[in-house]
Amino acid sequence: MRIALLLSLGVSWSREAAWRLSELGHEVHAIDFECEVKGTYLACREDLRTRAIAKLRPALAGIHIIPGKDISPFRYLRYAPRLRRICNNLRPDVLFSLWGGGFSLISLASGIRPYAVFLTGDDVISLSGLRKLISQRALNQAAVVFANGQFLGDLSRTFAPRARIHPICLGVDPAKFVPLPAASSPVVIICTRGFAPVYNNSYLIRALALLPNSLPDFRVVFPSAGDLLSETQELADKILSPELRRRVHFLNGVTDEDLLRNLQSAHIYTSVSRSDGTSISLLEALSCGLFPVLSDIPPNREWIDRKVGNGMLVPLDKPEEYARQLKEAILASAHRIAVSPFNRRLILERADSRKTMARVASLLGNTIRSRNCS
């Protein structure tokens, strides 16, 4: 199957999906925009992006860039003819967008058929008004739509009822994200979410300010970058004591290898996003056996078994409660170790990217064959 894969090469999970489809024997052509929106949590630093793409390139049949410097939302309509020209040269069996929103819009407007869409989260959750109407049309006309997790799949069915929607996790590579023994001290808390409003990283800073001084030694690591990084650093400088501020480390974006090392050196993973699909960051942490402390939103509930106690769910906008649960997680070293294998098994059973992307490819192939026969 020849796949024209519309994706953001600066995003690690997009590269993982491209790799897996190629690994399955498909001819994958990656298509990206010349100019990504800079400064967002998704726009990887150029030096890191270039290295990551260089590693992916040998696995792909080609990388094709939609030219143009426009970074406004209108680029998806303006550049649709450019996407069409690329696809007319490639003659793919399917145009596959690894995103909804503007990516599904440009797929619709390009006139290339069939096209498929993979929804990840905010490309459905945050839409309203005209953008919502346009996205609904794009999804309803797609040959097949995948949604990242059961919650997002159920939501997408109400959003675009005529679309053929399959809930499937993008997944992660459990052969890469493997647990390693971490030093018992200090206890390392890691938050790998980008500094964007939806990910609410300042909430962690406000909770840290309420932790008691009597806790065992701990560190907090933020590996990612994003628009709100400087603002969050300033908040930490303002409300954390000097001793506590020294424990909080902002890394401003790291390579894939450094991200893995930071995860494998951590004990607790935390994310208090206000909305989400199935979080790839969470799956990476679970695959490494980390203990999660998460915002109590529907996609996160799918990964926490209250009977097992393999993680904690915290309410939004209640920093005292968030601080209490972080304190409990820091102190519960024996319990964290006990449930680590359970969290790892969740990924092996439900979110191994080799299995999930094989299912995606199978459904894509079935869709193409059924259209050719009709």
How would you characterize this protein structure?
The protein has 374 residues and is an alpha/beta fold. It folds into two domains: 2-171 and 352-373, Glycogen Phosphorylase B (Rossmann fold, 3-Layer(aba) Sandwich); 187-350, Rossmann fold, CATH 3.40.50. The chain has 17 helices and 13 strands. The strands form two sheets. It has a seven-stranded parallel sheet, with helices on both faces. The protein has a six-stranded parallel sheet with strand order 10-9-8-11-12-13, with helices on both faces. The radius of gyration is 21 Å and the shape is globular. Mean pLDDT is 91; it is low at 37-43.
- CATH second-level architecture of the largest domain: 3-Layer(aba) Sandwich
What general form does the structure show?
A: globular
* CATH level 1 class label of the largest domain: Alpha Beta
Report the portion of residues in β strands: 15-25%
Query: Helix content range of the residues, please?
Result: 40-55%
Task: State the major sheet.
Answer: 7 strands, parallel
User: Class by helix and strand content?
Assistant: alpha/beta
Q: Would you identify the regions where 5 or more consecutive residues have pLDDT less than 50?
A: 37-43
- Could you state the CATH homologous superfamily of the largest domain? Glycogen Phosphorylase B
In N-to-C order, the SSE pattern is: EHEHEHHEHEHHEHEEHEHHEHEHEHEHHH
What is the tally of helical segments?
A: 17
Any idea how many domains? 2
